[in-house]
Structures are given as C-alpha cells and as structure tokens.
Amino acid sequence: MSNKDLKSTVYDRQVRVWGANAQSLFENSHICLVNASASGTEALKSLILTGVGAFTVVDGAVVTEADLGKNFFVEEADLGKSRATSIVEHLKVHNLFLKPENAIAVHEDPIKLLKTSPEFYSKFSLIIVSSCPSDILNEFTAFCANTDIILINVRNYGQLGIVQSFVKEQCIFDSRITPPFTDFRISNPWKELRDLAESLQPEKLDASDHGRMPWLVLMINALDLWEKQKGKRTISYQERKEFEEMTTQWQKAEYEKAVASHDPSKGNLDFQFSPPFENLDEGMRNIHRLAKVELPDETTHLFRLLEEREARMKTVFDPQEPELRQRFWVLTAALRDFVKANNGLLPVSPTIPDMVSSSLFYGKLRQTFAAKANADAQQMLELTSAYIPATGTGEPLLVMTFEEVYNFSTKAGMTLCLNYAPILTLTEKTESEANAARHSNLATMIGEVPDQVMDYFSLYEPEHNAVWIPLVAAADIFRQRHNRFPGQANSGDVVSEAVDNPRHAAVVSKEDFEKDVEDLRTIVQELCKQKGLSLSIASSDLVRETVRFAGGELHSVSAIVGGVVAQEAFKLLSHLFLPLDNTFVYNGLPGVVFTGKL
Amino acid sequence: MFNASLTHKRIFVVGAGGIGCEVLKTLAASGFRHLTIIDLDTIDVSNLNRQFLFRKEHIGQSKAHVSRSVLLERYPDAHIISYQENVKSPRFNLQFYQQFDCVICGLDNVDTRRHVNRMCIISGVPLIDGGTAGLTGQSKPVLKGKTECFDCTVHAAPTHYAVCTIRASPTQPVHCIVWAQMLYNLIFGPPESNFNNALDDGEKATPLMVPIWKVCQATNGVVSEKDRVDLWKRAIDVFTCSFSTELKERNEVLDKNMVQAKPILDLLKGDLDVTTLSPDTCSSIDETFVENLAVHTLPQLAKTFIRTFYDLSIRQLTQHPTQDTSVLFDKDDSLALNFIYAASSLRSINFNIKRETRHSVKAIVGNIVPAVASTNAVVGGLTVLELIKFLTISSPLQNDLCYTVVQMRESNHRLLSASAPADPNPECPTCSLTYHICDLNPSISLKNFVDSYIRGTLTIKGDFSLSVSTPSLRVLYDSEMEEEFPLDKSLSALGVADTTLVLLDQCCDTDTPVSCGIYFSLPQPTPQKRTTVSGGLPKEEKTMKTH
Ligand SMILES: [Zn+2]
C-alpha cells in the first residue's frame, strides 16, 4: 500500500463526515497548545489522531505526580522531565504521516515567550489555551484580536468544563444545519418547472397517471387553480382545509373524466391507482412549502457584512487575506448580485426529497431541478469575474472552477459569516464600553441565585450555568492574591493539583476551607458589584461549591471538554458546520449545559 | 469527590473500538483498576484515526488483547482481563455478568447491543450504552425497571426497496447499488443469497444469471485454460446482457410511465469494442485515493466490470470449491467492491441517474458509520462520568438530574443536551418481562419440563405456548396443540442449552406480548458438587422480577 492509499484508508471514516477538502485543511494546519493540562492534552490527542499536520506544545512545567494521576499521556518515567516534551513524545505516534519536524515541544513559560517574541505565535492556525488562569488567557486574547489565528480556551475546573472561542471572522461555506434550508419554488416556479407542471395538469393526464404525479408538481398546479379562484397565491392556516378540498375535488373529477374517456385499445386501466391519492396527502404534509420562501436571516446578515466590507475596503477582493476568505467574499458578492438579478431568490439546489411518483415523472422533475441548479451556478460563475482583479499580464488573481461555485451556490441558504467578540473573562485589565454591555447581558442570563445549589439547577434554565464564569474569575483573583486556588492546600504548581485522585496534593483542612470560602465570597462580592451582576451569587452556596473544586482537573470532565474543543477546532478549521459562538459551560454533576454568546 | 472507592469496582467493557478505547482510558485515568474487555475484532488500518490505544504495528492483532497490554503498560497495578470472543457466546452467561458493578457497551451493531441489553436486564447489572455517528453521539444509562432499555424503542431496520424498483425502474443511486450487490450475491455469493434475490428468475433464469459454480468447477483448486477462455467470454456476455440486450427488451415492453433505459453498447459505440478485449489487455481501475473519488469514463467502467467479473469468477472457483463455502459480499473485499462500483455506475448510466464515487458506493453497501475521534472522546467521557456518579452518589435515582441522556449535535445551538432518562416502556419485549432463572439440566423431556417446572414450580395455569428466541424465534410447545410437539424428546434435543432464553406466552392470542422469560442457567460444575438432575424436579429456583 502506498502512503497515499494508507492515508485515505486511515482517514476514511472521518472524510465521510467533512469531505476531502476539509481533511486537507486540517493537514495544512499548525496547532499550538499552551499548557499541557489534561483537558488540553485530550483536545490535542483528538486533533493529532485526525491528521493535523503540525503541532507545538508550549509549557514551562515539569511532569509531576499530579499529572500522572489525571493525564493518560505521561508515565512514571517522565517524572521531573519537561511536560511539553513528554506530551509531544507520547502524542506524536498517533499521526502516522506526521513529519518529525512538525511535532514541536517548547519547554518555556508561554507568557514570557509571548512577551519576548510574539512572532513565535504568529505562525499558528489555532492556539488552544488550556486550564490557564484568566490573566494568562487575557494576554492571548489581546494577541489574537488582530490576527487570523483562532483562539480556543479550555478550562476544566473540578466538575466544570468551560470552552470559549474567538476568531475575528468565521466564513462558513455550508452550515449543515438540520433540517437544511430548502426552497422548492412551488410558489414561484421558474420557466422550465412551470412548463413541466403545465404539461402535467390534471386535465391532461391519463387515468393511471393521477396517482403517479409527484406531489410537488400537483401542488404547483393546485396553487395556480387557487390563484385563479382566489386571486392570490397565499393560503392562510384557516384556508388549508378549503385548499385541500378544492384539490381533492379537482383531482377526483379529472380522474373520473379520464376513466370515462379511456381508450381500451391502449391497454387495460391500471387500478392500482385510484382516489384518494397518496400524493395529495404528501402535498398536504408539505403545505408549509407552498408559501414563498424568504431569504434566510443569515443571508441578509451576510449581505450586510459584505456592504460594510465594501464600504471599509472599497473592494471585495483583498490580496492580503487568506485565499479561502478571498474566495468566500467573491462568491458572496456574486450571490448578492444573483439575488438582485433574480427577484430576491437564491440559486436552486438540485436535491429533491423522495416522493410517491412514477420513475418517469420523478426523473423529469429531478432533471428540471438539476438543470436549473447548473444554470444558476453558471450564472454565479459569470458574476464572480467582476470581483476578481487581474494581474499585470491579464491573468485573474483567483481562478474559480465551476465545481467550486456549484458547491457554494447549491448551499446558498446555508452560508454565513460570524464575527466573534473577544473572550470574556471578567478579569480584563481595561474596561471597554462594549464590555459593559456584555456584563449586563451576563447579569440577565444569570439572574438571581437562590441560596441552595440544587434549587438553582433544578430550575433547569441552561442560561443559569453562566454563573460559573464570574465564580471561576473570582477563583483566579483569589489565586493572584494567595498564590493558590481556593480549597488548594499548597501554593506552587499553577494549574495542576487535582482533588479527584489519590496522587494529588492535599486539600486544605476544615478551618482553612471555611476561611477560603469567606475570602472567596468577598472577592465574588467585589466582582459582582464591579460588573453589575446579582449579589446573590456571592451569598449562595455556589461559592462553597467553587472552593470544593480546589482548582483541580477531573479526568472524565477533561475528556469531555477536550473532545468538545477538538470538535470546535474541526468546525472552525474546515469552515463547515455551525461552530460555538462563543461560550460553553458544562457542569458535570447535574449535567447542565450553557451555550451562548457572552 | 470521586476516588479510592472506584478502585475495587468491576467494570465490563463490551467493544474496544472507538468508544471502547476512550472509555477504557478514562476509566483507568479516573482510578478504576478492575476491568474486563471483550471484542471479537482485530485492528484495522481504518481504526487508527480514533482508536488511539492501537498503532500501525498492531494491525491484525486482537483489539481486546492489545488494549489490555497498552493499559497495563501505563497502569501496571490494574487487573485487566481480555477476551477476543463474541460476547454472545454461552460462556458469558448470567454468572459472568453478575460479577460486575456495571457494563459499558460501545458497539456499532444493533443485534449485539440488544443481546448485551437483555443480559443486563436479566442479571440486573446496570448498563451504560454509548454510540456515535459522525459528530453526534449519545450516552444512555439502562437500569432495569427504572429507565428505558435499548429495546424499549424500536430501532430502524435496514431500508428495503421494492423489487420492481430495483429490477425495472431505479430512480436513485442507491437502487443501482442494491441491484449491483444482488448481482454479486447471485453469481458469486453463497446459496442463501439466492433466496429473495430480486434478480433471481428461478426457472426462467437466463443461463447467464446463475451462480458461477453451475458454469464450471475448479479441479484441485485450478481453473483450466479452456474454462478461463469460457469465463472471459462469459464476462463479456454478462456485461452485454445486463447493460444492453436485457434493457432493450425491457424498453420494448415498457409502459409509458417508465423511463427508457439507454443501452451501454449504444453509448460505447466507437469508443470501445468489448469483444476485442482479452485478459491481457483489459485492466480494472485501481483502489487509490484519487480513484476512490474519481468519475470514471464509460470505457473504464466497462473494462472494470468485465475484468472484475472474470477475476472474481476465478477467485471464487479456486478459493471456494463449492457455492456453500462462499461468503456474502464484504465491503472490505476490494475486488468485490470494484465489481459493485462498476456495475452500479453502469446501471446509473443506463437510467440517467447521478453516479456515486467508489468512496460513496462503499459507504452505502457497507453501511459504514462515519466516525471521528473527538465525538468518541466526548461520549466516552460522558459515559464514565455517568458511571462515577452512579457508583458514588447514594440513592442517585431520587435525583433524576443525575442520570442524563446526552446527545451532541453537530450544528445545533447547544452542543450537549442532557435530560432525565425516559421510563421503561410497559410494552417492551425485553424489560417488561419477568425472568425466571432455571437451573434444570436440559436433558429432561419437554413433557417433564412443562408438567413439573412450568405447571409445578411456576404454577402457570391454563393455556400457554413456549418459544425459543435464538437463533431465530421458533415455537417449542403450545398447550392447545400438545399432540403436535415431540413431548418425549429432551429439551437439549430441541435446541435448549445453558444460556437459552425460553419465552412463555400465557395468552392463546398470538398478538399479545409474551408474559415471561425462562433463562437456562446451569450451575457451574465444580469438582465437589456435581449437579445431577433426574426426574426434572428443580432443586433451586431464583426468581427475579422487573419491579
Ligand atoms: Zn425495555
């Protein structure tokens, strides 16, 4: 087996999820892990297994007993050695195709490195900051703000898992939302579809054809009849029954006429099909598809972003940008022009669902859609050329293939662009006006906190789970003051002590525990006042709960959030799917999840 | 919070695949030290993108054994037992299950999952079932009598297509692929693949559409030169007939609702004369990444069909001396897949249907579930966390938040959603039953079993019927038609053995669900105490009820 064949076999199962294009994007990515905690290592493991082409681990720590207790990818022999080196050695074997020079360990303090040589971090496609206190995270947030580097923060704090992502601008070619956006153009068929429907009107059919007519065609004709009778193409909810009745009568009358006038020399009638017909049932189940399909909000938003971009840059094409983004905006501009030229309609997708039909009619219908999808993509392709400047010698700076345009135009209702806000930690050194709005949004999500922990979560509003953001921020402030996390016995190792394992460092005594609770409570109070969050957070039992976590990682929670980070990385690197925007908080004990924009 | 108490818990991990590797790693890293692993499979190249306990040098070795040794390297103090066996084997009986605190199941086939689910219901051992497909997955606890079990909901059966669609009027790529698979099984498959084969015309069968073994035989594993010449001619004839002559005949008798098929020979005109091909000049496509995704030309497909037909004929005749020893199509059989790819593509061209790449054809025929490392990691983690909560929190079920069914969604707003597990379905064929554990030796006669055990010990009154569920459901006894059953035969002669589940239906109306299950569990033979059962009177009987 050649290397290429081996590669295609190894990655076969996942290429079936995201396609060969996305796979090659992963293979050309360089990922940086800052701090090799258990959750970060778990995330990196999944990325390496998936075939990411290069990775760097930056970590100034050495392997301790605590690491052995919670991280699978270190062993006894690594004790006292560079953690970055150990993790890289253990993980690199999981990508058979990795070039040795692309597995890099940097045994240095990540922040010192950022301050002394920031250009070191500029080469990465994605930086994962793992289980770092928020003062470290803030530095990376500031660094990534004006770059195209994706930043993901992953934090395992006791039973909590937090994931936050940032990317300046995320262009998504196909969000793959379910159910997908569809417009079968029943209310406004294009010429060829209308011609097909007209040739298949009930009065033109043989008796045996009525039951074999695809519902889509039947409904186009029924809607025309409705318009003749009512003078409008819309059907209100109350009118649905009437519409169904009208279509039933029409179909039945035409069927009976056809039976009566049947020419026996053409063979016997096929009585397999007689009213009531299944296609009408199918059509009524799809009645909502008879309404005119509006442009999706995401598309409208996308066009607004395009306008802003043009106003800002005076052009669509920017030669400085990564090629993928150049393509995205050129295609988006072509899409906008297409929509303008086509009365607000998106290009047609060739996919139609399975339906009761003869293969002849179904085949014709499918071909009509396929031909239109091709024609629309062709029009799109022509529209792109206006936005692609040429070189001095007249060569276009970007070559668009029909296939590429077709892939974009047939998914047109599912393309979008996300702009992220910087990761919010509540420990930012400077306060902006934008952040004040975000704090008040957070305050609304969290609301008032009851004293009892279980009361809070039994209400089961996932938004409430955002409460852990200020609590973990307070724990980080505590750590800055005491050089240890609340509930942790000794100072020292910044982010490594775990409560879950026999090998971890001791937790504090009962008296010290209570003292930590009170200290943390004061910090939470200050923080809530400062950010306008409810003071009930400070008086609740959640503070005590936070001290119980003692800043440690639990392997099972690390595995979960590590997997979530890797999934997010795939979505962001592939420009497919709908990625997290921008915060995920998981509380493992009750199994409560918050996902939202902070 | 969670710690030393986990060291002594005994966990049975069924399946050491994508989820299994994650679960085993997370169990060990969370402090579990008593693990039992079972997996029948060996390590394949396509596992390496996610099953991180395995490496290239392990390919071909047992998943169970390799995962055991890799875990032991990292955790030398762990006690790990591994089995490279089918979990449905009778040795994994009730006593076996009862030694565990929990079973974790990470399998991809419904049949085995149902078996493990049933064993957990009968033995009362908690089960956590994990599954993934692409970027979505779930982890679900099964606690007898308290939560929904795997059988409480009906699992989608594979889609069946109407025979006439496959034979005469395909409209989708999948119809052509199913047709190609049927063609393969008819000519190269074992005898059972000819039952219910839509392409088999039985008596009317064209002399071409018959199993290859009816055409010629290998002598001492060698196909003679003369036969080879005939087989080559036959490959061309099957090609001509399947994609041209037969369709021309069909077009002539077509009712007007059917699409006219385009004969391949007409389309090939000028490009290729298949009759001039010979085994020396005709080559098949290669299985490379590029070929996998390529769109091949008509002459390439025609050559591939003829070539693979010929190669398969010789391979089947030499490797399987009779049709009985042949096997059904397997997606990893590259030659067979090339045949199916070529045949289905040609048929798609016949009917003007979109063609699938070889890569997609493989997914469709092989029922391949897409799999990603990260999803397995999340599901494995959730599964172990659920387990830890279950084992460490006292009376957990009073707080229904502790048990969550978690699903991940690829593009949904919320990445994970948790909900309390559903209640058991009272109509469930598995967990709604009461199970009786029967330690009678199945050498007793059917009559004795009915009279002394069913009527005696279980005190069943009135009419009832008995059936055995494995390997397929069949009736053992019906009190209303007693004379029709071999009452004097022993149960073992009727297929009942240790680990057999006999279903007792107390209602004469066959539509009503079975009312209880009798599970044969023989006492484990020990040197001191030999069990001899004579006369069929039970010595000991354990009854377990679901509620
Ligand atoms: Zn059930």
UniProtKB/TrEMBL annotation, chain A:
Signal peptide: none annotated. The keyword Mitochondrion does not apply. Keywords: Ubl conjugation pathway. Gene3D superfamilies: NAD(P)-binding Rossmann-like Domain. Pfam families: ThiF. Residues 11-576 form the THIF-type NAD/FAD binding fold domain. Pathway: Protein modification; protein neddylation. Coiled coil: none annotated. InterPro entries: APP-BP1 (IPR030667), ThiF/MoeB/HesA (IPR045886), ThiF_NAD_FAD-bd (IPR000594), Ubiquitin-activating_enz (IPR035985). It comes from the Eukaryota. Belongs to the ubiquitin-activating E1 family. ULA1 subfamily. This is NEDD8-activating enzyme E1 regulatory subunit. The lineage of its organism: Eukaryota, Metamonada, Preaxostyla, Oxymonadida, Blattamonas.
From TrEMBL, chain B:
Pfam families: ThiF, UBA_E1_SCCH. Pathway: Protein modification; protein sumoylation; Protein modification; protein ubiquitination. Signal peptide: none annotated. The keyword Zinc applies. The keyword Ligase applies. Residues 527-547 are annotated as: Disordered. Residues 322-362 form the Ubiquitin-activating enzyme SCCH domain. Residues 5-429 form the THIF-type NAD/FAD binding fold domain. InterPro entries: ThiF/MoeB/HesA (IPR045886), ThiF_NAD_FAD-bd (IPR000594), Uba2 (IPR030661), UBA_E1_SCCH (IPR019572), Ubi_acti_E1_SCCH (IPR042063), Ubiquitin-activating_enz (IPR035985). Residues 538-547 have a biased composition (Basic and acidic residues). Keywords: Acyltransferase, ATP-binding, Ligase, Metal-binding, Nucleotide-binding, Transferase, Ubl conjugation pathway, Zinc. It comes from the Eukaryota. One of its GO terms (molecular function) is acyltransferase activity. Heterodimer. PANTHER family: SUMO-ACTIVATING ENZYME SUBUNIT 2, UBIQUITIN-ACTIVATING ENZYME E1. Belongs to the ubiquitin-activating E1 family. This is SUMO-activating enzyme subunit. It comes from Blattamonas nauphoetae.
